[in-house]
Amino acid sequence: MPIKAFAGHVVDLGRIKISDEVRHATRRCLIDWFATTVPGGVRPPATFLCEALADELDRGNAALVPSGRRALGRAAALINGAASHTVEFDDIYRDAIYHPGAPVISAALALAQDRQVNGDRLLRAIIAGYEVSTRIGAAVTPAHYEYWHTTGTVGAFGAAAAACLILGLDRDEVEHALANAATMAAGLQQAFRSDAMSKPLHAGRAAETGVLVALAAARGVTGATGMLDGPRGFGNAMSRDANWDSAIADLGQHFNITRMTQKNHGCCGHSFAALDAIIALRESHRLVPEDVSRIRIGTYSKALEVTGNDKPVSGYEAKFSLPYCASVALIDGRVRLNAFDDQHLEDREIRELIKRIELYVDPQCDKGFPKQRAAVVEMHTRDGRVLRFRAPTRKGDPDSPLSDAELVDKYRELVAPVIGEASAEGLLDVLWRIDVIDDVSALLVSLSGLHAVGASN
Q1: Nearest to 402, CA basis, from 24, 28, 20, 19
Q2: Average pLDDT by stretches of 10, the chain with 457 residues
Q3: Which one of 56, 233, 280, 363 has the fewest beta carbons within 10 angstroms of its own beta carbon?
Q4: DSSP state string for 262-283
Q5: Confidence (pTM)
Q6: Residue 54's closest CA among 83, 86, 79, 80?
Q7: How far is CA 280 from CA 6, 333, 337, 386, 393, in A?
Q8: What's the rounded Cα separation, in Å, for the pair 318 and 39?
Q9: Which of 163, 156, 116, 106 is nearest to 133 (CA)?
């Protein structure tokens, strides 16, 4: 029964030795979470959720990012979880088509602060959440992704695992928490097709669910432990032929958190390989839009299904528009947060360039999905050249990772404008040494600066 194996792994992670490689990878994930949550926290839906849940704020030990406003654990998990999935810069586990940081770290940090645990325990909880959820996600992929938003569904398991480790639950209690996470997991892909706030809300709700089921299990609330692989369980109901044996085969020997994708563009990850190819051609041939008469982009079918919109009317829709993002990439040489401001959305050059872009399914790219995210771009220039570039992976993927320096540059770009350079640097220093922080509730980031941080050395 996979749920028992996962529960045992969560308990083990509370006490076993964690290698330096895994610790370093986890710190990178935490830094990347702050990079995406800080700018997300000053935008809707996080700001609207603060108004909606006002009676649950200004008390408790958990803190909202980046306001520093105090909150109870469940409210902090929900609001921070939504914030972390808003600007579309959060991490990815490629094999599961899943953003683990948003639900897992949001739940782990909220409950760690609420219970005033140390940084080492927070780190272990994050690892537990990533390992359980990425493996469940990979087991049900790709069939699950036809209708379900993995971050909202599978994210609930990761948040639950992390919360259970923070609370120090035993194996039976963890089983019950994971079982109840299964029956509460939700998030429909229709959210991708609309200019709505549902998608980030999925991540927040998954984080809150994890905290809820862990707290409930600690007080004796039971769950049906066949919820993953039972005949009417998560696997059969929301996927086809889920591979549970593979999911638990090397638990404790191999850690998926060392194979994360950290985003290099501020939009849907299905666009990334194509954007990398366009930027490569732009730079190597010194192209400007006037040079290009036509662009053909071949990639996998799911990328076109999710990002094929060639008439986006809002910043949110533009993040899920490959033609729009490709146009910005050719013009600006990058696709960052400002690519979706009003100035860009109304830019006539971008809109004209979109008309010269053709999308199609490339069989080789399609065959490799989801374990490979590839694209091929063909640019036809006005002087008669045909320039071609195949991107076999995405910059930021495990086989082409962001370096620590590149990850820090991304963090600074996203965080410093919100909380100031001094506070951003202070927070970064703390995150690189999170293992030695005595009480993570003392880590309080706010719009007025970085406040009390306790450490054991």
Answers
A1: 28
A2: 96 97 98 97 97 95 94 97 97 97 98 96 98 98 96 98 98 98 96 91 98 98 96 96 94 96 96 97 96 97 95 94 98 94 96 97 96 96 97 96 97 95 92 93 72 47
A3: 363
A4: PPSSSS-GGGHHHHHHHHHHHH
A5: 0.94
A6: 79
A7: 42, 9, 20, 14, 13
A8: 18
A9: 156
Domain span including residue 368: 269-391
DSSP for 282-303, please give it: HHHHT--GGGEEEEEEEE-HHH
Contacts of 368 (CB under 8 A, 6+ apart): 300, 374
For residue 60, give every residue at least 6 positions away whose Cβ sits within 8 Å of its Cβ, in sequence order, or none: 70, 71, 72, 73, 75, 76, 114
Q: Is 261 helix (H, G, I), strand (E, B) or coil?
A: strand
Same domain, 361 and 344: yes
The reply to whether 174 falls in a domain is yes
Give the pair of three-digit tokens for residue 359: 């999308």
Task: Please check whether residue 456 lies inside any domain of the structure.
Answer: no
**Cα distance between residue 206 and residue 260, in whole Å:** 20
